[in-house]
Amino acid sequence: LDSVRPSPLKQFFFTFDQEYDGERNPEGERHGRGKAHLPNGDTYDGEYEHGFRNGLGTYRFRNGASYTGEYLQNKKHGRGIFFYPDGSKYEGDWVNDQRHGYGEYTYANGDTYTGEWFNHNRHGQGTYVYKDTGSKYVGGWVNGNQEGQAELIHLNHRFKGKFLNGNPVGHGKYVFDIGCEQHGEYMQSEQ
Q: Low-confidence residues of the chain, pLDDT below 70?
């Protein structure tokens, strides 16, 4: 009879982990497919490996946000889509819980950024489209700021030049749809 009765450790583990419904490995770890209700009100439905979210899954936050995609060791890693509570969303690459690689972010105001990401910031080459005006910035980004060679395209003209901290600097030119060009140089003024 004693060999059939669970050990006190397993009884405690079972009562402590009542919020999980799914597969386990012989060691009792979450392993395979499962659903979890976390103490903070969040939920996860997806794959586990040795107790960690690993593989494909959907994590729903109590605040209304959600992530559906790949996990590695409990962190967003691989391809996935994140819906934020303000209505914005990011669809693309993740590394170690950060937007990292290539992806598209649609902001709550309807603006979009499509391009490269590094450590959660727009970084590398990308295109930002301003919904209200239809204008778009195509070019370099550094740590979330418009920086490097780029083109700012408006409805009837465009600016080609260099940007620093989101502002044009140095030599550049305006090209108008009627065929005219204006060449010049942007200089930072002291205020």
A: 1-18, 191
Contact between 116 and 93 (Cβ < 8 Å): no
Domains of the chain: 19-107 (2.20.110.10), 109-190 (no CATH)
**Cα 39 to Cα 16, 33, 43, 74, 86, distances in angstroms:** 11, 20, 9, 16, 24
pTM recorded for the entire structure? 0.85
Q: Which residues contact 113 (CB under 8 A, 6 or more apart)?
A: 104, 105, 107, 122, 126, 127, 128, 129
The region that residue 143 occupies, defined by phi over 0 for left and psi between -120 and 50 for alpha, beta otherwise, is left
Reduced to 3 states, what is the DSSP secondary structure of residue 156? coil
Question: How much is the CA Rg of the chain, to the nearest whole Å?
Answer: 25
Helix segments in the chain, DSSP class H:
8-16
pLDDT tens digit string along 116-128?
Answer: 999 999 999 999 9
Closest CA to 88 of 62, 113, 119: 113
Beta carbons of 119 and 132 less than 8 angstroms apart: no
